[in-house]
Amino acid sequence: MIFYLNKKNRTQELLICKGDFELEKILTVHHLSFSNGPHERNSNFETAIKANAPVSTSRYLKTLPAQPSSRRPSLDRHSAITPDPMEEAPISPSSPRSPVQEDAPMAPGEASAQEAKENTKQESIDNIVQAIRDECLVPSPVLKGVPLPDLSSALLLIGRKYNTLTEANQGLREECEHLRKKCAEECEPKYDILKKKYTDEREERKRLYNEVIELKGNIRVYCRCRPLSLEEIAKGSSCVVDFDPAQDTELRIICTDSSKKQFKFDHIFGHKDDQDAVFKETLPIVKSVLDGFNVCIFAYGQTGSGKTFTMEGIPENRGVNYRALEELFKISGQRSSLMRYEFYVSMLEVYNEKIRDLLADGPDQLSKRLDIKQASDGTQDVPGLLEPQVGSIDEVWEILINGGRNRSVGSTNANELSSRSHSLVRVTIKGESFVDGQKFTSRLWLVDLAGSERLGKIEVEGERLKESQFINKSLSALGDVISALASKNPHIPYRVRGIEHGPVRKQTDFAESFKLKQMADKLLQSEKENIRLNEGLQLMQLKYASRENVFKTLQDKVFSHLMIPKRRSLASFTPIRGSLGAATTPDKSNFSTLASSSKYRSPSRFQAFSKSMIPTFSSPHQRLRLTSSPTNAEHLDGAHHTTNKLCFSVQKRVIVSSPARPKQFMHQGHTMFNQVLRGGNLVGRLQGTAQRVLCKNKRRSVI
Ligand SMILES: Nc1ncnc2c1ncn2[C@@H]1O[C@H](COP(=O)(O)OP(=O)(O)OP(=O)(O)O)[C@@H](O)[C@H]1O
Q1: Residue 306 marked as a ligand binder
Q2: Distance CA 356, CA 407 (A)
Q3: Separation of 486 CA from ligand 1 center, angstroms?
Q4: What is the band of 195 on the pLDDT scale with cuts at 50, 70, 90?
Q5: What is the C-alpha separation between 547 and 698, in angstroms, rounded?
Q6: Which family does it belong to (predicted)?
């Protein structure tokens, strides 16, 4: 061991080297004085080292190197510990000779041996220095410039560098602490604001996303036309799809009778569109899973149309499943400072109406029957389904490959590797926000359905036939479900009525929806018309009520007029029988009977009598028309002039010649009218209208 001192101010550093010059550690020694001789120095060393580190001081002192003068550390005056000539020789075999030994005369052989030893020593020192340089604790460029033999200077430089760095480090620590405090003081309120902004922004993004989805329709349908296979080309088959790339939402299928059937989709991919183009369209909806939305993407179509190619793809041209998961991992990496995500993958297939776990190991596990159960939160689950956690896309790919191997496929004449089951990949995502601690679990379903098959065309039998029947049955059930969901049918023919689906159904026939819209418009129109007619009717009723009232008042007046001042003249009065439209001849004998009877004197009796004699009219209009009609006039002229006159006089009094009366009638009529209004619970608007009608009626009467 070698000790060197690097003294700085009142703090000194003890550089402890292992072996020859390999720096082992640096100890800080406080208030160490070396000025009073070696003994004191030794004891000071011991004290200092004891105070700083659990090391054996005597051992250190004994191994203090006695270097040749030429190589003795030329420490500066502050850092020098010169070896004590009184000390015993170093124990270390590698230590150089002591200064005492250096002065003794040597034999020539001994000298050359000594020289060889020195050279070896020098070599080892060089190696050590080189090692220090290479693995230097302080790789200082200054140190690299130090000449090799000047080890003490090198160590000194290391020490100095160390001190400087320690000071700098301390300074940086303090500065860092200061900045941290300042940052906490200044940024905490800003952080809260930012956090709130972030939360609001996220909510807004969710809301907008929902709106977009709503506008576009939750169910989006894309169509992909695969290119003709080599086999089809060889057979001379031609493409039955008529598709204009400029109009990427409309597609026509050429039927066998050359007629065309038109279909509409959200987007149509032609045979030149690759896997990437297809995936890009699904990307926004896939991304939404990371915001907590449940998503299902499924491929549906006839056998051999390219469903498995689209969903699974091939290793050199991977499909939606792989790309979706790759994207999810990518985005989760980008959001790693804000969110923590966990991914779990399951794979299952529905084969002949049985659920099989495709990730199960061995035939026993694979044949284990699984069921769909409704969870307490209303979601559906398959208890017992394996759901390994995945941390990277490579793990996912491995799982997809393994699961795919377990899938039931068979050969039909429509597709050599036809899927005989519906395959489902379920990705469960558990997310947690670092900002507000919000947690969610969402699911992405990637479904490759078995192809619909025309049994006559694919000519299957036995097991394949059974499979085909199951496939077609389940697809038809799915068709019913989708149809019911899309048309908002109250009865959904499967369990899951909680599904939210968008208001827009892209696959809808537009002509049909236009028809429906027209019908709805008509209905609305007729409802409006109905309301208008009802209002008219009420108005008419009011009119009628008010006129009836006027008529009643007139009638009363007529009879009171007849009864009191004209009693005598009534002797010549013959009541009119029957309707005025066919007015009867006045009958004097009747009147005589009436005049002599006691009934005559009683106004009420008279009223009863007159009511029976004077025809009633369905409306005041009718009465007015009647009294002034020429037919009536015919009956009222000649011998019955008095009666006629009376009639006219009544009319004249009431309607023409009595200016005070109409006002009074109007008041009475008004009061009655209000009563009618109240009785009929009619509103002020009608009241106003009716009042106008009443006045109008009155005016007409006066005229
Ligand atoms: N877009 C495409 N480009 C090139 N080849 C395709 C494309 N789509 C499908 N193919 C090829 O057509 C063949 C049938 O496709 P695939 O097996 O995916 O059909 P499928 O609809 O899944 O049939 P099934 O319902 O019987 O399982 C495969 O050989 C596939 O590689």
Answers
A1: yes
A2: 9
A3: 28
A4: confident
A5: 9
A6: Belongs to the TRAFAC class myosin-kinesin ATPase superfamily. Kinesin family.
**Residue 507 domain flag:** no
Q: Which long-range contacts (CB under 8 A, 24 or more apart) does 440-443 make?
A: 440/292, 442/289, 442/290, 442/291, 442/292, 442/293, 442/294, 442/295, 443/289, 443/294, 443/295
Q: Is residue 15 exposed (0-12), middle (13-18) or buried (19+ Cβ within 10 Å)?
A: buried
pLDDT value at residue 130? 73
287 marked as binding residue: no
Measured by CA distance, the residue closest to atom 23 of ligand 1 is 304
Phi/psi for 431 (5° steps) reads -120, 150
Q: What pLDDT shows up at residue 628?
A: 35
pLDDT at 343 exceeding the cut of 90 = yes
Q: Is the separation of the CB atoms in 22 and 131 below 8 Å?
A: yes
State the DSSP code for 652. I
669 is in an annotated binding site: no
| Distance between Cα 382 and ligand 1 center (Å) | 29
Amino acid identity, position 345: V
Residue carrying the six token digits 């109008």 = 696
Q: What span, in angstroms and rounded, lies between the C-alpha atoms of 328 and 330? A: 5
* Arithmetic mean of pLDDT, 442-446: 92
Separation between Cα atoms, residue 676 and residue 391, nearest integer Å: 82
Pair 231, 304 in one domain: no
Phi, psi of 274 (to 5 degrees): -95, -175
Determine the distance separating the centroid of ligand 1 and the alpha carbon of 637, expressed in angstroms: 105
User: Is the beta carbon of 227 within 6 A of some atom in ligand 1?
Assistant: yes
Is 228 found in the same domain as 115?
A: no
Same domain, 286 and 374: yes
Substitution site in 225, 302, 309 for ligand 1 pocket (most atoms within 8 Å of beta carbon): 309
Same domain, 551 and 657: yes
**Whether the CB of 450 sits within 6 Å of ligand 1:** yes
> Does 304 carry a binding-site annotation?
yes
CB 313 near ligand 1, within 6 Å: no
Residue 303 annotated as part of some ligand binding site: yes
Alpha helices in 145-287 (DSSP H): 151-216, 230-235, 275-287
Tokens of 419: 């899927």
pLDDT average, residue stretch 20-30: 53
First to last CA, the chain: 141
Going by C-alpha positions, the residue among 45, 13, 12 that lies closest to residue 31 is 12
Strands 439-448 and 409-410, bridge-based pairing:
unpaired
Residues facing 432 on adjacent strands:
340, 439
Report whether residue 304 contacts ligand 1, using a CB cutoff of 6 Å: yes
Q: Which two tokens stand for residue 400?
A: 């997809």
Reduced 3-state DSSP string for 32-65: CCCCCCHHHHHHHHHHHHHHHCCCCHHHHHHCCC
The answer to whether residue 604 scores a pLDDT higher than 70 is no
**pLDDT tens readout for residues 242-301:** 877 777 788 888 888 878 888 888 888 988 899 999 999 888 888 888 888 888 898 988
CA distance 250 to 245: 9
Dihedral angle of Cα 671, 673, 679, 685, to the nearest 10 degrees: -120
**What CATH code is carried by the domain that includes residue 319?**
3.40.850.10
Residue 307 CB–ligand 1 contact under 6 Å: yes
For 107, the domain range is 2-167
Q: Could you tell me the distance, in angstroms and rounded to a whole number, from the CA of residue 316 to the centre of ligand 1?
A: 15
Total domains in the fold of the chain: 4
Cα(387) to centroid(ligand 1), Å: 28
ipTM above 0.95? Answer: yes
Closest CA to 67 of 159, 160, 150, 156: 150
309 CB near ligand 1 (under 6 Å): yes
